[in-house]
Amino acid sequence: MSNERLRSALVSAGVTQADLSEQIGVDPKTVERWISTGRVPHRTHRLKVAALLGDDEAFLWPSTKSDPRNLAASEAEFVTLYPNRGSVPIDVWEGLLERATDQVDLLAFAGSFFHDALPDFAEQLAAKARHGVRVRLLFGDPESPALELRGREEGIGDLLVSRCRLTWAYWMPFLQQPGIDARQHGSTLYASLFRFDDTVLANVHALGAPASHSPVLHLRKVAGGRLFTHYMSSFEKTWEAAVPAP
Fold first, then answer.
1. CA 203 to chain centre
2. Alpha carbon 190 to its chain's center
3. Do residues 135 and 179 touch, judged by C-beta distance below 8 A?
4. How much is the mean pLDDT over the chain?
5. What DSSP element (H or E) covers 53?
6. Bridge partners of 162?
7. What is each CA distance from 206 to 71, 86, 124, 187, 190, in whole angstroms?
8. DSSP helix/strand/coil, 67
9. Average pLDDT of span 170-190
10. Which pLDDT belongs to residue 96?
11. pLDDT tens across 44-103, in order?
12. How far is CA 219 from CA 36, 76, 216, 228, 234, in A?
């Protein structure tokens, strides 16, 4: 069977088969066989292709999900588990931001703990952006039905919407700064995601409970692992569906 996932991923990324063969270092006929016959490449090539296309290896080649090396790599991505967001030490947040050199992505409905519990976080993030770090802020649209529903599910009524408005007011002075891109989303949020380069803190959600009461997975990207890519794929989908912040 042909590998239509790989074919589609190439089209989405604007990468031709010739481009792929050159960048991966294989014969163009080999790339054609990967697509037309569904042949599974060697692991080294799979990892290079997945990294180039920004996709999960297990998505491009589902048969690799049970590869012991992939399972081990995913386990290696797991750093620790915090029982709730409040148990993540302040110095973890501060250290991750201080060490970030490439990218910071923040996804939540309100994320009000940034300005409630982390002094000068926004100023420090803005300083990072001025020094070349790409920053993407992705918080809830106060007019979105998703926020109204989430507030009712948590039993706090309009409080979540109010907190979201406060969040945008808090970030407003920084939104016009080069290097900071901000969007509003109205998506169902299954996890708040906080990415600092190759590390992501995934605050998974539970129905009826505020995000602050739910566990946080501390993950660090490892070649061949799928946890970091899995969660960041969710971020990208939410980002693409969002609208520019006012």
1. 11
2. 12
3. yes
4. 91
5. helix 43-53
6. none
7. 26, 16, 31, 15, 8
8. coil
9. 94
10. 96
11. 898 889 888 888 788 888 888 777 776 777 788 999 999 999 999 999 999 999 999 999
12. 35, 9, 9, 6, 15
The rounded radius of gyration (Å) of the Cα atoms in the chain is 20
Q: Which two tokens stand for residue 154?
A: 């948590």
β-sheet with 199-204: strand ranges across: 78-82, 216-220, 199-204, 191-196, 103-107, 134-140, 180-185, 243-244
According to DSSP, residue 244 is labeled E
DSSP E strand stretches across 9-151? 78-82, 103-107, 134-140
- The span from the CA of 51 to the CA of 49, in Å, is 5
Angle between helices 68-77 and 227-241 (to 10 degrees): 70
Structure-block tokens of residue 161: 């919407």
* Beta carbons within 8 Å of 46's beta carbon, 6+ residues apart: 40, 57, 60, 61, 64
